[in-house]
Amino acid sequence: AVSNAEERSARNFTARKALMSQCDMHDLMWFDLDSDTRMRWFEKVGENAPSSETKLKYQRIQEAIRYWDKEHNRLS
Question: Do both 28 and 8 map to the same domain?
Answer without folding.
Answer: yes
